[in-house]
């Protein structure tokens, strides 16, 4: 969770597996009827696969809107509409859930959501503090990810940052309470054990915020520019794909500020870049440039500049979104499950998954498009 300036879980794989497992896990572990799963619509299947936090609450508003902080804090208007939306948008209630977050209800001072067709961009929107991660960030991130997971039209997410830097990590001044174990209330001074329990609970909360990114049912692509330090690396490690601009710098900085990285880097990075590279970065706290990050596999591609990396990430997201959403989300779920499975278990899992979802409208469309020599148009049905 380190930061370059004061002002600013080992069970993760199992949690990802369980979060993404959905119908496949239910079929394999609980004996859910395959025929029932084949009858699910895309929205029903997606909601079933995600468990309680993710419910379908609406059919999908028009593209091209910006929600969250936007041009002015609290701006939640759709471009071209002016002021409020006017007439209420038609909403078909698919699944009822108390306080289930949606894109339309999401609001944050430090995060912004933009929708363009089937691609969402989630912006880290605190450029004046180099996107340091304070209390609002940790509270709002899981809500934003749940809102994106709730949106049937979103098929891919780009995680980007406003300003010259992706993130300088944990805002240590704003969150000094974690390191100090909290101030005693009244005249009662908490014991060392009580302080430790409080610290642990807070760390687990921060871990859950980052894990919300990994748990998103659709692919998440990080577009990194400038500094990506400490908590910033934790954040991109939870993404499916990482791209960087040429000037980007990365650092697992925690050891330099006397902290053990504790919100995901040490758990997720070994599967991304290997144990040796993780050990080097975490033990030394050194900075590495985008070229080194690409050489060790931390990023997939290096773009010329910040504008180019955003464009490249969005283009990749559009390419993903053009495919069958059932197939893409199923692939992500199977990959996540495979993190804690043997090859044999993984093969059994994907066989069960496809038994549930192979008979889809998207498969019919794919075969028809192939025969007609045209691109497929997929609905997720």
Give a quick precis of the structure.
The protein contains 14 helices and ten strands.
What would the keywords be for this entry?
3-stranded mixed β-sheet; disordered N terminus; 381 residues; 7-stranded mixed β-sheet; alpha/beta; 14 helices
Helix content: 40-55%
- The H/E string reads HHHEEEHEHHEEHEEHHEHEHHHH
Fold-level CATH name: 2-enoyl-CoA Hydratase, Chain A, domain 1
Taken as a percent bin, the fraction of beta residues is 5-15%
- Report low-confidence residues grouped into runs of 5 or more: 3-63, 70-98
Strands in their spatial order, largest beta sheet: 1-2-3-4-5-7-10
Helical segment tally?
14
How many structural domains does the protein architecture include?
1
Main CATH class = Alpha Beta
- Form type: globular
Instruction: Give a count of the beta strands, DSSP E runs of length 2 or more.
Output: 10
Q: If you compute it from the alpha carbons, what radius of gyration comes out, rounded to the nearest whole angstrom?
A: 21 Å
Structural category is: alpha/beta
What is the terminal-to-terminal distance? 41 Å
Q: What is the overall pLDDT average?
A: 78
Task: Supply the CATH superfamily name.
Answer: 2-enoyl-CoA Hydratase, Chain A, domain 1
State the major sheet: 7 strands, mixed
CATH architecture descriptor:
Alpha-Beta Complex
């Amino acid at each position: 969770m380190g930061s370059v300036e004061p002002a600013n879980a080992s069970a993760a794989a199992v949690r990802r597996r369980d979060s993404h497992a959905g119908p496949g896990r239910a079929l394999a572990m609980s004996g859910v009827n395959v025929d029932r799963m084949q009858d699910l619509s895309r929205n029903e299947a997606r909601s079933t696969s995600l468990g309680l936090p993710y419910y379908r609450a609406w059919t999908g508003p028009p593209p091209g809107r910006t929600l969250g902080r936007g041009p002015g804090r609290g701006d939640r208007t759709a471009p071209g509409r002016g002021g409020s939306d006017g007439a209420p948008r038609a909403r078909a209630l698919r699944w009822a859930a108390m306080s289930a977050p949606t894109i339309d209800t999401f609001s944050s001072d430090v995060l912004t959501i933009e929708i363009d067709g089937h691609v969402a961009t989630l912006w880290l929107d605190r450029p004046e503090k180099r996107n340091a991660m304070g209390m609002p960030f940790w509270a709002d991130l899981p809500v934003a990810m749940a809102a994106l997971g709730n949106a049937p039209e979103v098929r891919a997410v780009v995680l980007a940052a406003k300003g010259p830097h992706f993130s300088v990590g944990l805002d240590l001044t704003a969150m000094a309470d974690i390191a100090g174990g909290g101030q005693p209330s009244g005249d009662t001074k908490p014991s060392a054990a009580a302080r430790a329990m409080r610290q642990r609970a807070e760390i687990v909360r921060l871990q859950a915020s980052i894990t919300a990114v990994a748990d998103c049912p659709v692919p998440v692509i990080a577009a990194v520019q400038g500094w990506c330090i400490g908590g910033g690396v934790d954040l991109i490690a939870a993404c499916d794909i990482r791209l960087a601009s040429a000037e980007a710098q990365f650092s697992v900085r925690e050891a330099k500020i006397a902290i053990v990285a504790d919100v995901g880097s040490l758990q997720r990075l070994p599967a991304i870049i290997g144990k040796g590279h993780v050990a080097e970065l975490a033990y030394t706290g050194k900075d590495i440039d985008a070229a080194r990050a690409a050489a060790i596999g931390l990023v997939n591609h290096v773009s010329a500049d910040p504008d180019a990396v955003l464009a490249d990430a969005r283009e990749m997201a559009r390419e993903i979104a053009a495919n069958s959403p059932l197939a893409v989300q199923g692939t992500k779920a199977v990959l996540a499950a495979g993190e804690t499975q043997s090859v044999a278990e993984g093969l059994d899992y994907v066989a069960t998954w496809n038994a549930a979802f192979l008979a889809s409208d998207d498969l019919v469309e794919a075969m028809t498009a192939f025969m007609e020599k045209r691109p497929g148009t997929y609905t997720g049905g």
